[in-house]
Amino acid sequence: MTSRVLRALAVAATAITLTTGTAVAAHAAANPYERGPAPTLSALQASRGPYAVSQTSVSSLSVSGFGGGEIYYPTTTGDGTFGAIAISPGFTAYWSSISWLGPRLASHGFVVIGIETNSTLDQPASRGTQLLAALDYLTQRSSVRTRIDASRLAVAGHSMGGGGSLEAASDRPSLQAAVPLAPWNADKTWSELQVPTLIIGGESDTVAAVSSHSIPFYNSIPASAEKSYLELDNASHFFPQSTNTPTAVQAVAWLKRFVDNDTRYDQFICPGPSSTAISDYRSTCPLS
Predict the structure, then answer these.
(1) pLDDT in tens for each of the 288 residues of the chain?
(2) pTM score, two decimals?
(3) Which InterPro entries is this protein grouped with (predicted)?
């Protein structure tokens, strides 16, 4: 059989309808990082994704550079390795204040570490350094390190933890995504950022007002990095401290798109969400 014929057969195989196993295999081969079923809005809005999740605690005595925390990970061993996310709580807060994010994100096919900071008073720059230390621990020494693809890492955080996620993304441009939630940072300019960044702010935030934090942060990030801004209608600074479905939907879509390179999630980013729960949405609209 000639090489020309073989190439033609390969092209034909990829064009087969997705109702056949052959096409599914060809599609999966095109993106080896794709995990989980085709997404739907209702699936993203559910309290859990398709993966069962286990949890393990990390003692502050067993790590350096951050204060320990909780790890959440998919229990399956049949889907290869997963991307990983480190998340920081905010000023004076503990991981428990935003811990719902751990199993929610992990159930969509990520390994998540929610960190405790060295001090609850740590500023954003310190929290950024701690997020990176947590990722290094996850990929190099943790009990789940064999479940992680160390080339596909992301950061997130609330308030000063959100500001810390910007710091981490600035310091380590190899990260695949950042998701600051109601971020606070004295530095308003992030023109050096190369990491795809989703900022989620609260319209009625009086601690890190979107007019002086989230929006200037978003505007300063270059479009070439890929960025989105979601503003929650009438939400306070503390919206991440209780289960927030619009936050979960957009965070999962962003992480799946940029950590897993999964273009099936483009539909949730561009043109983006629209509901009474959202007062503003902006995006550079990544293309498949």
Answers:
(1) 433 333 333 333 333 333 333 333 344 448 999 999 999 999 999 999 999 999 999 999 999 999 999 999 999 989 999 999 999 999 999 999 999 999 999 999 999 999 999 999 999 999 999 999 999 999 999 999 999 999 999 999 999 999 999 999 999 999 999 999 999 999 999 999 999 999 999 999 999 999 999 999 999 999 999 999 999 999 999 999 999 999 999 999 999 999 999 999 999 999 999 899 999 999 998 665
(2) 0.89
(3) AB_hydrolase_fold, FrsA_esterase, PET_hydrolase/cutinase-like
Residue 259 has which token pair? Answer: 């950590």
- In-domain check, residue 26: no
List, by residue number, the catalytic residues: 159, 205, 237
Burial code of 145-167, b = ≥16 C-beta within 10 A, e = fewer?
eebbbeebbbbbbbbbbbbbbbb
How many domains would you assign to the chain?
Answer: 1
Domain containing residue 174: CATH number: 3.40.50.1820
